[in-house]
Amino acid sequence: xxxxxxxxxxxxxxxxxxxxxxxxxxxxxxxxxxxxxxxxxxxxxxxxxxxxxxxxxxxxxxxxxxxxxxxxxxxxxxxxxxxxxx
Length: 86
What we know:
Layout: H1 2-7, H2 10-32, H3 45-50, H4 54-85
């Protein structure tokens, strides 16, 4: 366990957690979303956000909240464990 924690850094953790939450966001938005119009390539991100359903807005807000909490707590825990094991 000690070797794992010594080799594990915040960059690796951020990559792993971001990939996990990105996968959740893709699946959740596909599940809660509605059919995308055919002129998807010409739409700007602002119009895409305006066309999102209320469930998608709530789901994305919850995901953003948990992502920010997860990254903040993991930063402090990893820095604490690094100091403790050195």
